[in-house]
Amino acid sequence: MSQEKYISSKEGAALLGVQRQSFFYYVESRGIRRRELNDGGKDQYEYNYEDLLKIQDEVKSKTSSRKKSVINNNVVSKVTEKHKRPSGKTSWATSEDLPYIYALDCDIYGLEYSVPPTKTIHWWQKNQTAIRVLYNEENRKDIWGCLTLLPMEEETIFDLLKGDLSEQQITADHILTYEPGKEYNCYVSSCVIRPDKSNSFNLLLNSVLEHWINHPEIKISKLYGFASGTTEDMSEINDGMRLVKKLFFSPRYDIDKNAWELNLSYYNPSPIIQTFQKRLKETSEEV
C-alpha cells in the first residue's frame, strides 16, 4: 500500500493559491489531516496532500468570485458618483460596530480572511483604541472602512508575519494596553475599505495619526503588516498593500516575502508620515 503524501504549509498555501494565514483557516474549517514533525524545523506540521486537492477547486472558485465582486462594486460606484452621498465620519470602534466590521471584511476579503466578532470582542475589551472605523455619518451601521492596529510584543508580531500564529489565534493576552511613557509596536491586523469609498481612506488613516499626535505620552515606534498583491505578479493589490505603498513600508524579507515594517522615527518620503512626524514633534515639545 502506497504511503500518503504530506506537504508543508508553504506548499499547501501555494497549492490552494492563498496566503498562509488563509491556508490555516482551511486546515481547521475543512478538517485537513496533518501530522506532527519532530525534525526541529520551522514547521510543526505537514498536511495531507489528497485532502488539500479535494478543496482546491472550491478555494480557487471563491477567490475568483471575490475578485469579480470587487470589480462589480467599482462599476456600481462609478454609476452612483453623480448622486450626492453622505459624508464619512471616524471614531474608535464600539462593541456594537464589530458585527458590521466583520460583514465588511467578509464582503471584501472573504470568510477565510476575516476574524469573527466572537474573537474581536476580546481584542476590543483589552484595548479600545486599537480598532478605528470609518462610517456613514447618517447611519453608524453602514461601515465604510476599518483600520485595526494591535499593540503587541515584537516577538508575537514576528510569529504572525512568519505564519507561526494566525490572526484567528490572536487572544486578548497577545494584545497590550497603552500606558503613558511606554513605546509600542503595532500589528496591522485589518486594513479594509469599501471600493466605492476609497477616496475616504485618508480620512480614516489621518484620524488614527491625529489621535497619536494628541497623545504624545504614548509612543508608537513601528507598524508591521502582512500584505501582498491579490495576484502573484502584483497586477492587482488589496487595501493592505495600498497602505504599504502609501506610507512607504519597508520589506522584511528576512521574516517573509510579504512582511512589511514602518519605523515612524525614520525619514519617510510619504507626505502623510512627514506631516505626522512634524506635528508629533511640536506637540511633544509643548508637553
Briefly say what this structure is:
By secondary structure, this protein is α+β, with helices and mostly antiparallel strands. It contains 9 helices and 10 strands.
Shape: globular
**Any idea what the CATH architecture of the largest domain is?**
3-Layer(aba) Sandwich
- The gyration radius over C-alpha positions equals 20 Å
Structural class of the secondary elements? Answer: alpha+beta
Q: Could you tell me the strand content as a percent range?
A: 15-25%
Q: How many separate structural domains?
A: 2
Give the beta-strand count. Answer: 10
What is the CATH topology of the largest domain?
Answer: Aminopeptidase
The unreliable regions are: 230-235
Oligomeric state of the chains in view:
single chain
Helix content: 40-55%
Determine the mean pLDDT: 86
Class of the largest domain, according to the CATH hierarchy?
Alpha Beta
End-to-end distance: 74 Å
**Largest sheet descriptor:** 7 strands, mixed
Describe the protein's topology.
Elements: E1 6-7, H1 9-16, H2 20-29, E2 34-36, E3 45-48, H3 49-80, E4 88-92, H4 98-109, H5 117-126, E5 131-136, E6 139-152, H6 154-162, E7 183-193, H7 201-213, E8 219-226, H8 239-246, E9 250-251, E10 259-263, H9 271-286
Parallel strand pairs: 7-8
Antiparallel strand pairs: 1-3, 2-3, 4-5, 5-6, 6-7, 8-10, 9-10
Helix pairs in contact: 1-2, 7-9
Describe the model.
The chain is an alpha+beta fold and 287 residues long. The chain has 2 domains: 1-84, Multidrug-efflux Transporter Regulator, Chain: A, Domain 2 (Orthogonal Bundle); 87-286, 3-Layer(aba) Sandwich (Aminopeptidase), CATH 3.40.630. The chain is 41% helix and 21% strand. The longest helix has 32 residues, at 49-80. The termini are far apart. The model is unreliable at 230-235 (pLDDT under 50). This is Ig-like domain-containing protein. Residues 86-202 form the Ig-like domain.
